[in-house]
Design goal:
The chain is built from 6 helices and 40 strands. It is mainly β. The protein has 3 domains: 121 residues, Nuclear Transport Factor 2, Chain: A (Roll); 131 residues, GMP Synthetase, Chain A, domain 3, CATH 3.30.300; 256 residues, Neuraminidase, CATH 2.120.10. Strand 6 and strand 7 form a beta hairpin.
Length: 584
């Protein structure tokens, strides 16, 4: 396989411990535009070239050089790093099988070895920040995680110190991480093939293949766990990328013969094109893609497309900065972008004297509102003149506020059993019929909120599993009778803290409103490792909703609050009890 590159050439050399940093060409972090006519498949990156141990290096220098060589991604087999090891350790050391560890590691022994010493151990101090698993998932370390490290043992061979007991995993510092990995967003169709779901992973830089090949080959491997339970890979098993190049102002991708199987399935073919086009936006967002099979046109004719052809697959569903909705004096209204007053929605939710709270809205496939009402259950009314409330989910216990998915199904979780016993049951409502959904991890928890992401696959849950309120992220598996699985903790419990509200902003970002000694509104990336901008907090806020590029809130005085990027505005001063965007 080859990528046609137009190399910009070497710019400078600089030494860093055991590595040389060389600005060169090949792998972009992000590509916003083409660079002056250069090949969009070739963009600058910083090379890290490992160097072998220096003669008569001290044990600390050997360990420091070994750690620096671990970050030398030009040496993908870590051959240089192995020169710091004894022959026996070289034969057994295989970091590819272990999670990469990100840490602020330091190697500072209290005293140096005696001149005639033949064995020595260098202690490791510092905090583990995160791990990256073999699939590329970034997993932040818990604050309570044990940071006790085994020391690195060395022996003297032929007068030179070498490592005899090495860490099983690669140890990278945060700066190494930014040079050795790129954060990429892969896209996979949901099980129904109606939309895409994002899978944000870290992709190790491989200068031999280059970023475009690495990106597509990672896409072909399939989604990471646990997302893999809720999506599918539209590429047939065994499909390989043979070549990728720029030709006639298009990116030509040549695949192996397996891909030709999609010629017999138009729906699967369209899902594959959407998956490929959305993923390749990270490289060349404005360029069309042409797919060939073993160097020949795709069966049935030229296959040429680009991301703009697949807007209906957008995992965020909503357009950027859509209008919001809120309950004003007991009536659901749609906000106005100008100074005009809001407009009441059609149907029961927009009529006066309709007792309801915590509404959720679906715009597709039909405009509907779901809400809690004084009578038990989840009630639904069409956004149509003359509509009436209909109970879709009954439930014997207390129900969480409703949440719609992109398929027109409404979700809620019922408290089961006595108040002093943990227990929940997940329900989905489909055209007026309530269907129980298996959720093993929630059956022994109390659930306060259950929010389906706009991609229809992920869920954000406020749950108490016995240790206090926490936020979990799970996966809806839409097979058979459905199942909610793959629950992972996004925010662990904390003594004295209450989680007031959660909301999806986009397919990878969750807003969390908490209260301890004071209230906090935090923005979390579900893939970890990011530090999104967090709005300053107004302690009067008691509920929040979000959409791509927008945040709305309601406060205890009944004011509508809108975050403009720098401060909270209050376009409505009183009468507001709840805010919402469609879905999320």
């Amino acid at each position: 396989m080859s990528t046609r590159r137009y190399l910009a050439g070497l710019v400078a050399l600089g030494a860093l411990s055991a590595c040389t940093i060389v600005p060169s060409s090949g792998n972009p972090t992000t590509v916003e535009k083409e660079d002056g006519g250069s090949d969009p498949l070739s963009q600058p990156y910083v090379r890290v070239i490992a160097t072998a141990p220096k003669p008569d290096a001290t044990p600390v220098e050997i360990v420091q050089g070994f750690q620096a060589a671990m970050a030398g991604f030009d040496d993908t087999s870590r051959a240089i790093a192995r020169t710091y090891l004894t022959p026996e350790t070289q034969a057994t050391w295989n970091p590819a099988k272990a999670n990469t560890i990100i840490c602020d590691c330091k190697f500072t022994p209290a005293e140096m070895p005696d001149q005639d010493a033949t064995e020595y151990a260098v202690p490791i101090t510092g905090k583990q920040i995160a791990t990256i698993d073999p699939e590329g998932r970034y997993l932040p370390a818990a604050d309570s995680e044990n940071n006790a490290w085994d020391p690195i043992s060395l022996v003297k061979l032929n007068g030179q110190w070498r490592i005899s007991a090495a860490p099983a995993a690669l140890l990278l510092r945060p700066d190494d991480l930014s040079r050795a990995y790129r954060t990429v967003t892969l896209y996979y169709p949901d099980l129904a093939g109606q939309g895409l779901v994002s899978d944000r992973v870290r992709l190790a830089i491989d200068p031999v293949r280059g970023f475009p090949e690495s990106l597509i080959e990672r896409l072909l491997l399939g989604p990471s766990k646990p997302l893999s339970e809720g999506v599918r890979n539209a590429f047939p098993p065994g499909t390989e990328l043979r070549d990728i190049r720029v030709e006639d102002n298009a990116v030509v991708m040549d695949f192996s013969a397996q891909l030709a199987e999609l010629a017999a399935s138009p729906e699967s073919l369209r899902a594959m094109k959407a998956q490929l086009a959305w993923t390749f936006t990270a490289v060349a967002p404005q360029m069309p893609i042409v797919v060939t099979i073993n160097g020949e046109p795709f069966p049935g004719g030229t296959l040429r497309f680009q991301r703009g052809d697949f807007g209906e697959f957008d995992p965020s569903v909503l357009a950027k900065e859509p209008p919001g909705y809120y309950v004003l004096d007991g009536t659901l209204v749609k906000e106005s972008k100008s100074n005009e007053p809001p407009t009441q929605v059609l149907g029961a939710a927009g009529e006066p004297n309709q007792a309801f709270d915590h509404p959720a809205m679906a715009e597709l496939p039909a405009g509907r509102v779901a809400a809690l009402r004084p009578e038990p259950g989840i009630w639904v009314a069409d956004l149509a003149e003359g509509s009436q409330w209909q109970r879709w989910i009954s439930g014997q216990g207390k129900l969480t506020p409703p949440s719609w998915d992109r398929y027109g199904e409404v979700w809620s979780v019922e408290k089961t059993g006595p108040d002093d016993v943990l227990g929940s049951r997940v329900w989905r409502g489909v055209n007026g019929q309530a269907i129980p959904v298996t959720a093993p991890a929630l059956e022994t928890a109390n659930v306060k909120a259950f929010r389906v992401a706009r991609d229809g696959v992920r869920v954000a849950v406020i749950a108490d599993h016995g240790g206090g309120e926490q936020v979990d992220i799970g996966i809806i598996v839409r097979m058979g009778d459905y199942r909610v699985g793959g629950l992972e903790t996004l925010i662990p419990p904390e003594p004295g803290r209450t989680i007031l509200d959660i909301a999806w902003q986009d397919d990878g970002t969750v807003l969390v409103l908490t209260k301890a000694k004071q209230q906090s509104l935090l923005v979390y990336s579900i893939s970890g490792g990011d530090a999104p901008d967090t709005p300053t907090m107004d302690n009067r806020i008691n509920s929040v909703t979000a959409a791509p590029g927008a945040i709305l809130a309601a406060d205890e005085n009944g004011a509508l609050r809108r975050w403009d990027g720098t401060r909270w505005n209050a376009p409505v001063k009183s009468g507001v009890t709840y805010v919402l965007y469609p879905l999320g």
